[in-house]
Amino acid sequence: MRVVAAMSGGVDSAVAAARAAEAGHDVTGVHLALSRNPQSYRTGARGCCTIEDANDARRAADVIGIPFYIWDLSDRFHADVVEDFMAEYAAGRTPNPCLRCNEKIKFAAVLDRALALGFDAVATGHYAQLRAGADGVVEMHRAADHGKDQSYVLGVLDQQQLTHSLFPLGGSTKAEVRAEAAARGLLVADKPDSHDICFVADGDNAGWLREKLGDRAPNHGGTIVDEAGEVVGTHEGSYAFTIGQRRGLRLGRPAPDGKPRFVLDIEPVSGTVTVGPRERLAVRRLTGVRPRWCGTAPTDLSGTVQLRAHGAELPARVRVGDAVEIELLEPAYGVAPGQAAVLYDGTRVVGSATIAATA
């Protein structure tokens, strides 16, 4: 097959490209330029989307012996991922930009361009496994190393995208990948993993949102109230908060029982943030919208649901109709509208939906 290897400049994507080439595929390395100004995104070895990362990817491609190109997708990334991130927070929701990037950029814009150029598949360094089902459907399963499993952020991929995807690292551990990179002479063998959100340069999400949104948001200032409606603090923007948040509330008055308080609700129009005890965060029912199915859409499912990257699996019953109704068999805490609920049947990813409401 002719394969585009998406090379971020990190160790995982470099080894994935090397394995694809070693398997006999005709591989071309591609680094995605996602920032209009790479120096405005994270610098140093913690992240991606920097000039340093592009150079690391090019050097890895040279060692592997494959052609290498840089594709500028910065405008598409800004519109589909960065602007979406800002709009979701301004609306009082908590998005996951990594899922949106996979859905809109890596397995849509990149895959569309690759197929148009005559390639057959896109290979990435994600930790997940693809298997052929009995009915010929391509199934996505959790990685062999559950500690590195990234199937959650891939739960937005549909069957057409999975059919044209390769995840060469799905059966390996991170330690094995680093050892292999060193044995292949790849200089990124010891490069630290990326963390946080690639386009937030210092990792301060609230500060970044405050700078970018400012007075653009209708909720650039407001009050923090307790469940009785009594004002216990003020804030500069409700977009700096998420459901379940405990730190950074800067409350002027402690709770009567002295226990910590958590964000229970965000009202984006008035800018009111409601806080209360942790037990009030418990939810047992979720309503999901905009479902994305990895194969045929189910009608009913008894399986598990994961609500955040590297979060715990929770047993659940799911009904699919006009919306995706999820009944949790044990409570979850700190679940926010805008998060993705990814559904599993054993290790197989069934699909995902965006959480619109909780109860």
From TrEMBL:
<feature type="site" description="Interaction with tRNA">
    <location>
        <position position="339"/>
    </location>
</feature>
<feature type="domain" description="tRNA-specific 2-thiouridylase MnmA-like central">
    <location>
        <begin position="213"/>
        <end position="276"/>
    </location>
</feature>
<dbReference type="InterPro" id="IPR046885">
    <property type="entry name" value="MnmA-like_C"/>
</dbReference>
<comment type="function">
    <text>Catalyzes the 2-thiolation of uridine at the wobble position (U34) of tRNA, leading to the formation of s(2)U34.</text>
</comment>
<feature type="domain" description="tRNA-specific 2-thiouridylase MnmA-like C-terminal">
    <location>
        <begin position="285"/>
        <end position="355"/>
    </location>
</feature>
<keyword id="KW-0547">Nucleotide-binding</keyword>
<dbReference type="InterPro" id="IPR014729">
    <property type="entry name" value="Rossmann-like_a/b/a_fold"/>
</dbReference>
<dbReference type="InterPro" id="IPR023382">
    <property type="entry name" value="MnmA-like_central_sf"/>
</dbReference>
<feature type="active site" description="Nucleophile">
    <location>
        <position position="101"/>
    </location>
</feature>
<feature type="binding site">
    <location>
        <position position="32"/>
    </location>
    <ligand>
        <name>ATP</name>
    </ligand>
</feature>
<feature type="binding site">
    <location>
        <begin position="6"/>
        <end position="13"/>
    </location>
    <ligand>
        <name>ATP</name>
    </ligand>
</feature>
<feature type="disulfide bond" description="Alternate">
    <location>
        <begin position="101"/>
        <end position="198"/>
    </location>
</feature>
<feature type="binding site">
    <location>
        <position position="125"/>
    </location>
    <ligand>
        <name>ATP</name>
    </ligand>
</feature>
<dbReference type="Pfam" id="PF03054">
    <property type="entry name" value="tRNA_Me_trans"/>
</dbReference>
<keyword id="KW-0694">RNA-binding</keyword>
<protein>
    <recommendedName>
        <fullName>tRNA-specific 2-thiouridylase MnmA</fullName>
        <ecNumber>2.8.1.13</ecNumber>
    </recommendedName>
</protein>
<keyword id="KW-0067">ATP-binding</keyword>
<keyword id="KW-0808">Transferase</keyword>
<dbReference type="Pfam" id="PF20259">
    <property type="entry name" value="tRNA_Me_trans_M"/>
</dbReference>
<dbReference type="InterPro" id="IPR046884">
    <property type="entry name" value="MnmA-like_central"/>
</dbReference>
<keyword id="KW-0963">Cytoplasm</keyword>
<keyword id="KW-1015">Disulfide bond</keyword>
<keyword id="KW-0820">tRNA-binding</keyword>
<comment type="similarity">
    <text>Belongs to the MnmA/TRMU family.</text>
</comment>
<feature type="region of interest" description="Interaction with tRNA">
    <location>
        <begin position="148"/>
        <end position="150"/>
    </location>
</feature>
<dbReference type="InterPro" id="IPR004506">
    <property type="entry name" value="MnmA-like"/>
</dbReference>
<keyword id="KW-0819">tRNA processing</keyword>
<dbReference type="Pfam" id="PF20258">
    <property type="entry name" value="tRNA_Me_trans_C"/>
</dbReference>
<feature type="site" description="Interaction with tRNA">
    <location>
        <position position="126"/>
    </location>
</feature>
<feature type="active site" description="Cysteine persulfide intermediate">
    <location>
        <position position="198"/>
    </location>
</feature>
